[in-house]
UniProtKB/TrEMBL annotation:
Keywords: Antiviral defense, Autophagy, Coiled coil, Cytoplasm, Immunity, Innate immunity, Metal-binding, Phosphoprotein, Repeat, Transferase, Ubl conjugation, Ubl conjugation pathway, Zinc, Zinc-finger. Residues 21-60 form the RING-type domain. It comes from Colobus angolensis palliatus (Peters' Angolan colobus). Its EC number is 2.3.2.27. This is E3 ubiquitin-protein ligase TRIM56. InterPro entries: 6-blade_b-propeller_TolB-like, TRIM45/56/19-like, Znf-RING_euk, Znf_B-box, Znf_RING, Znf_RING/FYVE/PHD, Znf_RING_CS. One of its GO terms (biological process) is innate immune response. GO terms for molecular function: ubiquitin protein ligase activity; zinc ion binding.
């Protein structure tokens, strides 16, 4: 944690914007300090005053204007002293671009004075060399500190000049403030002390500062303690928000798993429950953002006041400290008395509940309930584990009730999953992982937050809704040693954007994707006969011209060219659209998948059950049949960079499998298990570690296979916004780009297990 007690230096105060007015953004003129310890020009405050009140531009606090006007606000002698030091650096009277001596005109020299080469820190005068030598030789000034003018202007003597600086009495020009009248708390010069403070007890400034400094330091320490509490409260707010988001993600997964074992007609309820879940999280996030903004505002106000007080105590002269002591003490007491939030507000975590009557089409099979979360004051892992244990205990107590009601409970990801039955019976899982940065609170039904009234912290509110989706098979068991252990890549949503452009005459039909330059993709829009370029943020970069009449299907980017298939032809064109060569392909195949080899100088295309590889000149470099089976038809090819020889991965619609083969056609891996859910395998992509991402359009999923072709589990589902995914590609080995049937593109960052 960063310490709040570090004292600022004089150089920081002079070089920062501390001496600038936050209203006019110029150097402070006649600085006046408001009760909130913010300082502005007197004229600026006069323009800002609204009748009898002024609203501080920084902390937005409203303060009353004294009856005498803004001039009656306390003068900031501390800032005045720093301003005098800054102004002394600037050139005063100049002659031929050089500062002039201040004593020469007084001793009968030229009216303008000779060129100054030194400065007296006690007299605050610039001196020529002759006057400087004489200054050191007189009885009255021989103790004065005379320094080199160049070094003074460079700031070498700021600290020493600050020590010799004296605050001047505003009523008696030329007289320094030397005393503090204790009954009046007023700074006095020698003239002021004679009348009307002659009979009042007075203290020298140094003695008065020694007496009053401990009280200010004690108040400052109290505000520092409050700042620590504010930081802890903000951190707890974010951690609780992260638990909410993580639990919401878990519930979304539970909704998916529960829905997989239910009849096709009843799964129409799922969409509505997910909508309620998203609405709950969004509403909770909005409430959390408001609380965070309030906490940050309070913290900013307290931090600004503490910084000002610390500057005054560290850098102020005795007169300056005492002149501001009352305002600082009042402000610090006010901040200490301000109520600080002890921790985050109770949070309602969503929980999934399944109801009986699964065969009744009018029954709502899925429900959401929201548990009131106890704030974790320690904010650490121990607190998370304790809460997880309490929630797990409450679920175990609720489990028999759910079984008696005939409800279906979602299964925890602990390895094997029960086969598909008429009623998929599962168990709950709970856990806390702080992976997000948001937190939310759902209001009670009467409009206010629902307080925790003691007892078990799982008071629930139930919401029912219909799900709108198609039926899908349950997910098979995860691979060994990978289930639920955090060893699988995980998706992190990056952005989503449409691909329809103003010039398009039809809705996009994306049939091909490929990386194209740094953090960019090339999109084959078959419906609009275009190759569109987008950044991963969704910025439209233009198009790569294609020959007239061509409808690009699959596309791949090479070193200095673009290859794409259209109809029964393979094209290689330059980035400006010039056709370098074209090759005729088999007419027996409706579409031909294209993939670039990692060298960037060859392109592979699937043709009637075999793979053909062409070089940049259009010559056939190699041709092979995967596994020697001529009936294979590869729909999508992605080069696997984890193999030294280079592997091809393709979707085999003939065998309904995913096949992995080397450059000679030898099959090194194949998957045709239940993880395909009886669907035809779709587009495939491979990340930098060799994981294979397979698209299953019919069930709105992208699943993961290991480099050898073994199924590891789901990567993306409908919960991630997948609605009929069509084509995918991997950019930079860590961004999975997914196109949907409606022309929308989703971008996910693939977080590796060891990140």
């Amino acid at each position: 944690m960063v310490s709040h007690g570090s004292s600022p230096s004089l150089l920081e105060a002079l070089s920062s914007d501390f001496l600038a007015c936050k209203i006019c953004l110029e150097q402070l003129q006649a600085p006046k300090t408001l009760p909130c310890l913010h300082t502005y020009c007197q004229d600026c405050l006069g323009q800002l005053a609204d009748g009898s009140h002024i609203r501080c531009p920084e902390c937005r606090e409203t303060v009353p204007v004294p009856p005498e006007g803004v001039a009656a606000f306390k003068t900031n002698f501390f800032v005045n002293g720093l301003l005098d030091l800054v102004k002394a650096r600037a050139c005063g009277d100049l002659r031929a671009g050089k500062p002039a001596c201040a004593l020469c005109p007084l001793v009968g020299g030229t009216s303008a004075g000779g060129p100054a080469t030194a400065r007296c820190l006690d007299c605050a005068d610039d001196l020529c060399q002759a006057c400087a030598d004489g200054h050191r030789c007189t009885r009255q000034t021989h103790t004065h500190r005379v320094v080199d003018l160049v070094g003074y202007r460079a700031g070498w003597y700021d600290e020493e000049a600050r020590e010799r600086q004296a605050a001047q009495c505003p009523q008696h020009p030329g007289e320094a403030l030397r005393f503090l009248c204790q009954p009046c708390s007023q700074l006095l010069c020698r003239e002021c002390r004679l009348d009307p403070h002659l009979d009042h007890p007075c203290l020298p400034l140094a003695e008065a500062v020694r007496a009053r400094r401990p009280g200010l330091e004690e108040l400052l320490a109290g505000v520092d303690s409050n700042l620590v509490e504010l930081e802890a409260a903000r951190r707890m707010e974010k951690e609780a928000l992260a638990r909410l988001r993580e639990q919401a993600a878990r519930v979304g997964t539970q909704v998916e798993e529960a829905a997989e074992g239910v009849l096709r007609a009843l799964l129409a309820q799922k969409q509505e429950v997910l909508r309620q879940l998203r609405a709950h999280v969004e509403a909770a996030e909005e409430a959390a953002r408001e609380r965070l903004a309030e906490l940050e505002g309070r913290e900013q106000v307290a931090r600004a006041a503490a910084a000002f007080a610390r500057r005054v105590l560290s850098l102020g002269r005795e007169a300056e400290i005492l002149s501001l002591e009352g305002a600082i003490a009042q402000r610090l007491r006010q901040l200490q008395d301000c109520p600080w939030a002890p921790g985050p507000a109770p949070c309602l975590l969503p929980q999934l509940e399944l109801h009986p009557g699964l065969l009744d089409k009018n029954c709502h099979l899925l429900q959401l309930s929201f548990e009131e979360q106890q704030p974790q004051k320690d904010g650490g892992k121990d607190g998370a584990g304790t809460q997880g244990g309490e929630e797990s205990q409450s679920r175990r107590e609720d489990a028999p009730k759910m079984e008696r009601q005939g409800g279906v409970q979602p299964q925890a990801r602990d390895g094997a999953q029960t086969p598909k039955e008429e009623k998929a019976q599962t168990t709950r899982e709970d856990g806390v992982q702080t992976l997000e940065e948001d937190r939310a609170q759902i209001p009670h039904e009467d409009g206010g937050p629902q307080p925790h009234r003691g007892g078990r912290p799982n008071k629930k509110k139930k919401f029912k809704g219909r799900l709108k989706s198609i039926s899908r098979e349950p997910s098979p068991a995860l691979g060994p040693n990978l289930d639920g252990s955090g060893l699988l890549p995980r998706p992190i949503f990056s952005c989503s954007f449409p691909t329809r452009m103003p010039g398009d005459k039809r809705s996009p039909r994306i049939t091909g994707l490929c990386p194209f330059g740094p953090r960019e993709i090339l999109v084959a829009d078959e419906q609009n006969r275009a190759l569109k370029c987008f950044s991963l943020n969704g910025d439209y970069k233009g198009t790569v011209p294609v020959p007239e009449g061509c409808s690009p299907c699959s596309v791949a980017a090479l070193q200095s060219a673009v290859a794409f298939s259209a109809g029964a032809r393979l094209y290689l064109i330059s980035p400006d659209g010039e056709v370098q060569w074209r090759r005729a392909l088999s007419l027996s195949q409706a579409s031909h998948a294209v993939a670039a080899l990692p060298s960037g100088d060859r392109v592979a295309v699937s043709v009637a059950g075999h793979v053909e590889v062409y070089n940049m000149e259009g010559s056939l470099a190699t041709r092979f049949i995967p596994g020697g089976k001529a009936s294979r038809g590869l729909r999508a090819l992605v080069f696997l960079t984890t193999s030294p020889q280079g592997h091809f991965v393709g979707s085999d619609w003939q065998q309904n499998s995913v096949v992995i083969c080397d450059g000679l056609g030898q099959v090194v891996g194949e998957y045709k298990g239940p993880g395909l859910h009886g669907c035809q395998p779709g587009s495939v992509s491979v990340d930098k570690k060799g994981y294979i991402f397979l698209t299953l359009r019919e069930v709105n999923k992208v699943v993961i296979l290991d480099p050898k072709g073994s199924l590891l589990g789901d990567f993306l589902t409908a919960y991630h916004g997948l609605e009929k995914p069509r084509v995918t590609t991997m950019v930079d080995g860590r961004y999975l780009v997914v196109s949907l049937s409606n022309g929308t593109i989703h971008v996910f960052r693939v977080r590796s297990p060891d990140s």
